[in-house]
């Protein structure tokens, strides 16, 4: 099923966020104050934390999906001045496939809404479908696919955009354990040349995929940089990972009380 040779490398980028203060408009308290985060090129950075701490807000702002609601370093940020505009691809928990479009058309969706005047590269889309094991479903409609298959289409659509930074908001959380494990492995292989920020509630997922792991905690939120196992992602669960997982759970329990 997996054939990474079909995926052309993309030049990864280092991302540095320093002294980041982010406040909802008219809010009395900042969500972040002097937040610092480094996303090393070509690596997965995983972010954990309890619901409502600000993980998705940070990711959605980086993606340019929050408009005229936040201040970034004291400046009101809109889609026109998003710091990472046109350099990111976004993969959400829901696959967000349009039900009236075929698998192939969903993969090529970004060409319909982007500024590109050239038609989509159908051959590239077919190669991506081959890479995610769905070449036989090129003309299928989303309602003919299982949840795992739909997320593989969403992954192919993410790769189709050729962006160096990929933001992932719990893309595997709604899947069963076996499908989730398979998609984690597939994503790790196909996104190895990208810089990835993954939001997750699953410590084991973070430990399996992450080169770097942070916990977002407190109000205003701060980031705690955790250690990672000595092996290279995607990791196989072993005693070392079990120890790291317990440490993460204990750290998270402090916020949940």
Can you describe what's shown?
The chain has 257 residues and is of the alpha/beta class. It has eight helices and ten strands. It has helices spanning 55-62, 103-107, 110-113, 122-131, 147-160, 177-190, 203-209, 239-256; strands at residues 15-24, 32-39, 44-48, 70-72, 75-76, 88-91, 165-169, 195-199, 212-217, 222-226. The strands form two sheets. Strands 6-7-8-3-9-10 form a six-stranded mixed sheet, with helices on both faces. A four-stranded antiparallel sheet has the order 2-1-4-5, with no helix packed on it. A hairpin with a 7-residue loop joins strand 1 (15-24) and strand 2. It is globular, with a radius of gyration of 18 Å.
Structure summarized in a few sentences:
The chain has 257 residues and is of the alpha/beta class.
Shape: globular
Low-confidence stretches: 1-6
End-to-end gap = 44 Å
* DSSP summary: helix tally: 8
Mean pLDDT: 84
> What is the helical fraction, as a range of percent?
25-40%
Give, in order, the helices and strands.
EEEHEEEHHHHEHEHEEH
Sheet with most strands: 6 strands, mixed
Total DSSP E strands: 10
Fold blueprint:
Layout: E1 15-24, E2 32-39, E3 44-48, H1 55-62, E4 70-72, E5 75-76, E6 88-91, H2 103-107, H3 110-113, H4 122-131, H5 147-160, E7 165-169, H6 177-190, E8 195-199, H7 203-209, E9 212-217, E10 222-226, H8 239-256
Parallel strand pairs: 3-8, 3-9, 6-7, 7-8
Antiparallel strand pairs: 1-2, 1-4, 4-5, 9-10
Helix pairs in contact: 4-5, 5-6, 7-8
Highlighted features:
alpha/beta; 257 residues; 8 helices; 6-stranded mixed β-sheet; globular
């Amino acid at each position: 099923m997996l054939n990474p040779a079909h995926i052309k490398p993309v030049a990864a980028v280092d991302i540095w966020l320093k002294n980041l203060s982010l406040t909802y408009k008219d809010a009395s308290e900042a969500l972040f104050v002097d937040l610092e985060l480094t996303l090393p090129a070509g690596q997965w950075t995983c972010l954990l934390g309890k619901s409502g701490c600000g993980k998705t807000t940070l990711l959605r702002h980086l993606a340019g999906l929050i408009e005229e609601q936040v201040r970034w370093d004291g400046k009101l940020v809109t889609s026109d001045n998003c710091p990472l505009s046109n350099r990111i691809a976004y993969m959400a928990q829901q696959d967000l496939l349009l039900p009236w479009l075929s698998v192939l058309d969903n993969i090529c969706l970004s060409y319909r809404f982007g500024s590109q005047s050239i038609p989509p590269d159908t051959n590239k889309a077919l190669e991506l479908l081959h890479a995610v094991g769905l070449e036989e479903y090129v003309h299928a409609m989303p309602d003919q696919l299982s949840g795992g298959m739909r997320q593989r289409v969403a992954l192919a659509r993410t790769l189709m955009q050729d962006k160096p930074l990929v933001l992932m908001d719990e893309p595997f959380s709604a899947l069963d354990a076996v499908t989730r494990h398979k998609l984690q492995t597939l994503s790790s292989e196909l996104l190895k040349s990208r810089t990835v920020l993954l939001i997750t509630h699953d410590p084991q997922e973070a430990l399996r995929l992450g080169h770097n792991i942070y916990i977002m905690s407190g109000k205003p939120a701060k980031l705690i940089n955790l250690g990672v196992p000595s092996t290279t992602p995607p990791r196989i669960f072993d005693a070392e990972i079990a120890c790291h997982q317990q440490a993460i759970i204990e750290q998270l329990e402090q916020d949940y009380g």
